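Fold sample X.
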Amino acid sequence: MTRQDHLETARAVILQEAKGLALLADGLGDPFNRAVSAILDSKGRVAVTGIGKSGYVSRKVAATLASTGTPAFFIHPAEAGHGDLGMLQGGEDILMAFSHSGQTAELAVIVQFCARFAIKIIGVTKDPASPLAKNSDVVIPLPDLPEACPLGCAPTTSTAMMMALGDALALSLLSARGFTVEDFRRYHPGGKLGSRLNSVGDLMRSGEEMPLVAPGDLMAQALLVMTKKRLGCLGIVEGGKLVGIITDGDLRRHMGPGLMETACSGVMTKTPVSFAPGTLAAKALSVMQAKAITNAFVLDPEGRPLGVIHIHDLLAAGVT
């Protein structure tokens, strides 16, 4: 087999899976809406299950649901009959079962348990006449397409459709719940994603770290404050509100023999760039880079300084 043969096989697989996704999207209808409504109306969690490759998909779907505001967990069908059925709360939880054929024998124990204890089942399968479909309260049908595997055996097209369906369900629920970026950040505090979702309020220097002076203070006194705080800027505060900022650039522009006797009001930049404490750190970094500034104050709704953010603090926190 040549390299060109490899590429042709790869493209054929991707195109076949893309065809499945397109048919899945076109075929979504009332069952999908009913599934969303059932989960929104539920007082419990979503238990997601499947065996084999469908089981790996189920784990991912459960994780995506949980991270986007829908409490969910994975239950292994083979372990269910050995005590894990205790994870399910009768009359409250919902079971979402993935099975391409709908005839997966390992699901029988969980399905029977759900029927006994009034746990609604959302079945995802290609066969509406299968045992899973017949025992489900809601059936979301998968297009009956051959797998992209050249042998027609390895789950490929079917698992791609299942994965996409899980994402569609999770994000539809996210929208319905009014899930916000702040909510998302609460569940993703670690890693690169967590750093991107930090707010300036999380990273700002506050309290005694803020370099603050009054408009009438002379630059001789103000420079001592600026040097001590080591942030390369001064916040000019009048009546408790920020009215200006002095940066290294302002000093260079006003450098001269009379600078030390000049009041801060004569050197400061009025209406400087500032941020609310809830501003995403990534957005603040973008603004600061675009305006070529290294410092900005964080203000409350009344214009009072809560802290100061330095571009180096953003970069050190991994914000990009």
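Fold sample Y, listed below.
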Amino acid sequence: MRLNAFRDVIGHQRVLDLLADEVPAPAGAYLFVGAASVGKATVARRFAAALLCPQGGIHAEACATCRRAVDGSHPDLVVVEPRGRQTLGVEDARNVVAQAVLSPVEAPRKVFLFEDAGTMTDQAANALLKTLEEPTGSTVFVLVAESEDDLPSTVASRCRTVHFGRVDEASLVEALVSLGLDRRHAENIGRIAGGRPGLALALTHSAEAARFRDAWLSVPTRLSPAPGEAFMLAEEMLAELEPLLEDVEADNEDRVTREQRERSRRRARQTLLAGGLEILASWYVDAAALQLAGVVRNRDVPFEELAAVSPDRAVRNAQLVLDAMSGLGLNLRPRLLLAELFAELASED
């Protein structure tokens, strides 16, 4: 039986089944890893709700315990996040250690949820390590990060790792349609989101989704090897992020502190930029597929534009875009990264 706490989660059925089996006798610590906005934090909240629920999350209707856990007001759910900084420091870890020895207030256990575990410093990890190694029977830690490598290995190795993949586009689109979205609008959002339900849901009320996708699909026909023009195009594409960022910010108005809102905006900006680059890469994949009897994904792009790029060049350029996406994870300056990418894509070498 699917847990009531998971009822509104889009995709990830294999992970949800695994976690449902864990609820009766959970491990001491879990690490949820996967791409940004793929749904890790959403599932982590609902997993925490099931762990705190007196019925293990199995009931016909949402209960008060599950509702309070999901909205963060349950006394036995401790959400651990940076305070006024971008990292989880040693003082944050020491506060967790002090609270971890306390008995639950009303649930059978306490759950400590680290939604930005990837920001943990080595000093914080060292302070937390003994508690992770020897948790009390009534304490569960749930850490959320994009990769195991984002955390000190001493912490990651003491957690049961749960991997979250992308949600397939068809399932994502159907979920959006079930929420009342027009199918064409849902398809545009699905293509931008790239299998990330969190981003897709944040953009459900955006009127700019189609324009954003069209802008990135237009890049290959507007490239120039001239550095100045590459920089201008980079600035234009970064400007295309702003209307969607405003929609994401409106969806996150419940973030109660300035630091929370700033972190949310940084993550959304990074995710949208990655989504734009994925759209651009898909153009080159389509250019190769068209000429090699493959399946073309972006059927609204004129075939004569796709055919103007040789298959070898299309494959090369798709790889350049994917390499640039890796650069995003290294916190390279987006304007410079895009300008260099656009100049390389235009180069004949």
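Sample Y note: The longest strand covers residues 139-145.
Also: Residues 258-291 form the longest helix (34 residues).
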